[in-house]
Prior knowledge:
The protein is an alpha+beta fold and 750 residues long. Helices cover 26% and strands 15% of the residues. The longest helix is centred in the middle third of the chain and has 17 residues.
Amino acid sequence: SKPAKAVKEVVENAAEKVTDFLTPDVPGSPGSAPAPLEEPTTPRDPLPPKKEQGAPATVTPTGAETGAPATAKGQQGAHLTTAQGARLRDTDHSLKAGDRGPTLLQDHHLREKITHFDHERIPERVVHARGAGAHGVFEAYGTAEAVTKAGFLKKGKKTDVFVRFSTVLGSRGSADTVRDTRGFATKFYTDEGTFDLVANNIPVFFIQDGIKFPDVIHAGKPHPDREIPQAQSAHDTFWDFVSLHTEAQHHTMWNMSDRGIPRSFRMMEGFGVHTFRLVDEAGETVLVKFHWKPKLGVHSLTWEEAQMLGGMDPDFHRRDLYDAIEAGAYPEWELGIQVFPDNPDQTFEGIDLLDPTKIVPEELAPVQAIGKMTLDRTPTNFFAEVEQVAFHVGHLPPGIDVTNDPLLQTRLFSYLDTQITRLGGPNFAQIPINRPHCPVNDMLRDGFHQHAVHAGVAPYRPNSLDGGNPFVAGDGEKAYTDVPVEVAQARKVRANPVSFDDHFSQTRLFWLSMTPVEKEHIIRAYTFELGKCYEQAIKERQLQCLANIDPVLCREVATGLGLPAPEPTLPLAEPAPSPALSQVGKEWPGDGRMVGIVVDDGADLDGVRDLRKAVFAAGMVPLLIAPHGGMLGDLPVQRTFATARSIEFDALLLAAAPAPAPDALPARDAKAGAGDAAMVDPRVMLMIDECWRHAKAIGAWGGGAKLLAQAGITGTPGVVSGDSATEVFTAVQRLMAAHRVWERFPASVA
Ligand code: HDD
């Protein structure tokens, strides 16, 4: 495991680099282009691929090296060519009959260029269309060796991975920060075949049987008549569905909690949801649930931040992921398993392990760490990798098998099926990002986009013409073998086991496990979402569900909606709370956090210089916010008052009280001619106000200290001032470890 110190060193070393990419083209800033860009007049070598960003290994579907260079295939050489490799002399003018004449059909270059462009888009994913991905490595601790024969889980084994994070409901261009479940799909390129762990950041699912998947998705997607709202659950069809299919209440509660609006992909847990089966060399089995635990802790946005980001920076999560990786603050997760005996009834402590609407609290079955994943490389080409990556819950290496969870069983069909449409045929496994990193020797042939030039004449078994190749593996030759689980003699039925009928006890467990501030957020989220519904009957039906979860929750939401709170229709369960479900109350490292620093030409620049060093040393990124771009002395300005907004920063430090810049809109105070307030740029005051409202740490020194009094926040929790920049930052850093200044949130419930 890379110690935190090493990460910090990388960040420090990357400091100059961070400055560079955050300060494009500032003349004179370190690393900026010496002269304005001009179009070169003679061919030169193409730009090299980004550092450490070669294309995936060029292995054919049969496992042979293609001999192609390991660098990106596109953009080779200095001269523009057609797709057939013929050099072009002109790509800006179509071939016409005279310079004012009609375009000629014979212009092959024109037709090739436009035809290709016309087909650049492929269907977006029907769910999880909006996503971002990154490469990395998984290193096994060896702790799972006792329960599985999977080679990639042997101690010290390193395996390449590619992860794609996503939202579920929105289209490909929708905002990152909407209230939704997040996808967390990981491709492990193991030596024994690819393993896809196609997970979410929520450990339960809306439905118990995959046959309802089209229904829940149709309900969550925009209304079919107007196609609104985009990427939202705050509308009638969603609440209609979840209030009628009460098995959805547990997942819905998670979505209404802070888990539905993560601060960062780097700060999310991941859950395999279903129970899987692990099998060892001797054929012994256990049941497991997979968990990803982020090193940085689990943190969320506030709802107001999430909404503002939807407009200000719809790419917030994507940007955060890539900025962190490029700054060397590599995101890390531990992979863990909860282990259960493989009993015939597939239950643990009375919890049905085949019901995907149920968790097993960590207090009952601890999550045991089995390895660590580090994401350290951004994609070279977003389309080629993030869009074309194809996951499938059925991609399993020897040692991992499925269970009879009826949701998982349907997924085993759905993923392969959807890729055929989305990626244009059955050969998507040959796309570089999907190629296994081990030899492939299948007998699949032909089909659209066949890239392999398969040799031999006998793609069938047994054969005598190709020397009998390929052979099937014998005993001890690491073949995938399905666990010969007993299948009960049973009648065909369209039915669930009775244990699946309990829809409320674990929803209540989640509610009871929250701290007051988290409960408050949940109340606000339900009130917001139901407040966006038009149909009275739907609101009333959902209130009835809330009454069956908790009377206080129901009463508070009903008050917000201006409706009576119904009585429960079912007895309330009294489960023991699971403190592990709460996000509040611990301290976490701040790697990759953003610290905004308000400065102007009169600020204590020596202090700011020290502060920047201290922030980098803490593994965070300092961003100078000034009235104008360019430089302040020798310090590069990363944001101006016009481009900055509070939501980008995890903490705000004030080094100055800048007068209104020329592009500031008039403020009410300025019009009224009020004393000092009139002299501060209103955007700075807005930033302070928002940071305070969103419970972020605020610090000030020197010329900035008077702003605290002006904003009326002196002495309030999480607001610090001091004599020097570094002293203030030390206090702010301590506050940031708790993620937010939780005391600032009002909590009406205990
Ligand atoms: Fe799914 C994509 C996760 C239930 C059908 N799913 C998809 C992705 C994730 C999940 C993370 C995006 C993968 C990527 O980034 O390319 N899905 C889940 C989880 C589920 C779940 C954790 C429940 C535990 N899914 C589920 C069901 C069905 C599907 C029950 C169908 C019956 N899911 C799909 C799909 C998608 C998909 C239609 C769309 C794009 C794709 O597969 O490649 O096949």
